[in-house]
Design a protein that fits this description.
By secondary structure, this protein is an alpha/beta fold. It has helices at 2-20, 52-55, 104-110; strands spanning 22-29, 47-50, 64-72, 84-92, 100-103, 118-125.
């Protein structure tokens, strides 16, 4: 009985995690400093610039997200590596065509950079 309950709880937790992920679009950039959130303080390579919705008038600064590639945005062969990456919002990407503009290193972790733009699922860590 206890094993069945634990398995059921595990399945529900996975489903809740999947259900809370949102879909969007990712691109990448290469100049991380200075940033709108941290000025000239480097925050490492696993950073991102938030599109207008995630930026939310600066409220997005410092938030962390797990991002996973789900496919090509431009119809090219699937660029996804099957991995996910955790990034911190360090900057704003005003008027970006993407939901999130990943550092080149973060983008390369989840997809071939030659794709340039990809479909993603992302989830905020609270």
């Amino acid at each position: 009985m206890e094993k069945t309950t634990l398995i059921f709880i595990g399945i529900v937790a996975c489903l809740v995690s999947i259900a809370s992920a949102k879909s969007g679009i990712a691109t990448f950039y290469t100049e991380y400093v200075p940033s709108a959130c941290f000025g000239y303080k480097p925050e490492g390579d696993m950073v991102a610039a938030a599109g207008d919705e995630l930026w939310d008038d600066g409220e997005g600064c410092g938030k962390t997200f797990t991002v996973k590639c789900t496919g090509s945005q431009n119809g090219a062969q699937n660029p996804c590596t099957g991995k996910s990456v955790k990034v911190k919002i360090a900057d704003q990407c005003p008027g970006c065509p993407s939901t999130i503009d990943l550092s080149r290193e973060a983008f390369a972790h989840i997809a071939n950079p030659d794709a340039g733009i990809i479909n993603i699922n992302y989830e905020e860590h609270k």
